[in-house]
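[#protein-structures] MJ: dropping TonB-linked outer membrane protein, SusC/RagA family here for a structure pass
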Amino acid sequence: MYTLKFLLLLLLLPCCLAAQHNKVVSPVYSDEYHRLIMADSASPAVTPGSRYNILTIKRWFDPKYGMQSVSVRRNTLRMQPYYPRVLQVSGSYNAGMALKTTNRLPALQTAYVQGRSEQGALTWRGPETNELFSFGPARASLEFDGQPYPWDINGKLVPAGTGNGHNATAYMNNIFRTGSLFSQSLSLQANLLENHILAREFSINLGQISENTFIRHHTSDTKNLDVSLGARIKWLHVAGKYTYAADRYSNANRNGFLNRTYQQAILTPVSFDNGQGYTLGTGQRSYSRLADNADFLLLDNGSYFKADRQQASLLVERNEYRKMKYRLTQSFDHKTENSSEGYKPGSAAFPGGNPLLRNKEDKLYQLKAAVSSNISYGRYDWSGSFSATYIFSAAQSVIRYQHPYNNYLYQRSTHEAIASYITWYDMRQWHIGLELGNKVYVSNTATHHNFFLPMADLSVKYLPQHSAGIELLFKTSFSRSDAELNIDKSLSYINLLRYNTEAAGSYFPVQEVSSFDQLAPVRHRNWSGSIGGSYKSRVTFTAGVFSHLVEQDLLPVYEIQRWVLKNAGSYQTNGIDIEVKLFDPGSRAHKLTTAHTLGFYAYKNKVTRVTEGRNYIPIAGFSDVYTTFIKGQPLGVITGSTWLRDADGHRVIGPDGFPLAAKDPGIIGNPNPDFVMKLNSMLRWKRFMLDAALEWKKGGDRWNGTQAVLDFYGRSQQSATDRTITNYIFPGVQMNGAPNKIPVDFYNPKLPVVANRWVRYGYSGVAEDYMEKADWLRLNAVKLSYSQPFKRVIQKLTLSACINNIMLWTPYSGVDPEQLLFDQTSSMGLDFFNLPATKTYGFNVSLQF
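AK: finished. structure tokens for TonB-linked outer membrane protein, SusC/RagA family:
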């Protein structure tokens, strides 16, 4: 068949050749054709008698896209390409629930009731006596009399066998409950792409968190809104953003109000029930007029805390390849805080009441301009870039107090400029990067400006030949910078230093620092170096050292009835930071992926210089126990009362057989840890993922002021256990230097209560006696999640359950040693009725669409 076709073609070939005729073809042209051309173009591209015209292309486009329109004007070919437009809409919804329970609590005794020793016997003394101590008789030796009694529906306590036969009840005056939290958030985002380039963008985020906290009658509510809109106009990217956030709390804790409530609850004797009512007649019902019923403080107190924040910003940006890039950002931030945080009439510390209204308003305008450009050296292995940034900030903070009427106004404007040059060298197995720069800091509140704040950063990556995935990396950096304390950061917490521990219930932070002006800026000098490596991204190792020097640090000092900021001195911190990461992607057969990160962090700090005449500056705490800034000592060492010791360090014992306290305070502890290790692990199997976080902190001391006060009032389990100890001989020497051999009873009923082991040393005892180690090993979190992808409106569903603060092992006898004193960030190492940490059980649902 194929042979027949080729034969037929060969036979017709001569005829086809004879049919060809060589003749010039004349262009076909007519008046009608010319008229039609003239209608489409003012200047005809083709004229009679011409074969073609050369046209200029006005705008070129990628031929892979379609054509929207074509026109010819004045010998110019105008082609309008068709750019595809794609609208991408996505979003997510998250909802979560959590339950919170208190974790560690101090051990309280339930064996002994309100009272003290009288006439050689332990005697119950009821609320009408205003007794504060729980050094009364054993609860098991008492019963109710069943007679009407204003302070207890069961009657008074009388010796067993003389009442109605109902044994004395152990009332548990706990202010804590199982807290609950509900949170939800909605996020929507829309992007319009033209020619696969983002042309328009819009997003909105809404969120709310409502919580009944673990403290009774205390709630919180948080709302937030974020809206952003952006567009690309030719070569410019313009974006605007607005943020609103609102926080509401039923009680503020700026003055330690919640800590005070917790203190009053656990000091309440086991024989008194706060739950039977917090009013009696026209006054407060409490176990003593010198103490408070926790419910009286929490209910109908008129307290609140409100915080609102609004932030708006506008961004103009040019970010094109091979061209000068620049970014200009303007933002305005406005924050207000309003709180009522006083005490109502009838309170123990303020019988006539002490209302306090506080209003705070912060404003911040910021302008940030940045330019950058790539630098070409004409070689493929060398490249670089230059960048410059200018930041102008204008801030104002106003604080107004009512009763007393104190007003404070702070203002600051700063100019910061940063210029840097970066160069890279990439050649075979070597990759080297070098950054050099300088900063400028100018402020109207600083005594001088600084125009030379250099910075340098060097990184070297080495990939050995035939290394099979091995990478080695070396980094080092140095920088100097100036800074000042933010004027919107209230320093009123420092007022606590004017109160001793016994007067802490009267703490009222109504004085701020007088000014932030005419102070030398705090100078920072940082150096760090590290080496590291990786193998096929499965094993990564980094080990680094760092040094941080702070000069002219600022601390508040009380002078002439006011708080004044002073440049106190310098301190240096040196440390190491090691991290190892292991990653196993698994195999298709096992489908198990694991990742582990082990970190080790350790540092030592030391005060290296102090301003003349200021070698002993309290930082935070009380007037009798506080953290301190002392030359030659670690930053924030704990200072307080100590035992009197001889030249050899032995405790000196008094004539009555009890140790003596020294007249002057001394250094009693260092809150800084020796090191911290963290282990984070992840296991992924199919659509399940399990995360866990473990932490070990070694070293660090903590003053247990809570235990000291519980001992003083006889409410601690330790005081209940030890009050029966007799003929105890304290180790030490007598005042004449001889070894102590005088036996003592910790609590002898024949002696006044003020002579016992704990009351004799005062409200918070001898601070040195209550220093404890604050090491810990904690299982921070475990989280299990499951993800299910979809191909419809809902793209992904994620379910997760987690437990936070699961387990804690520590030799410290109080609450979680990580908790802060009155929420003060500078109070590390101090515990005075710190609120307990919570264990959280949470469940979350997340939808992506």
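MJ: nice. The helical segments are 2-18, 31-40, 257-267, 294-298, 705-713, 717-722.
AK: one more thing. The mean pLDDT is 90.
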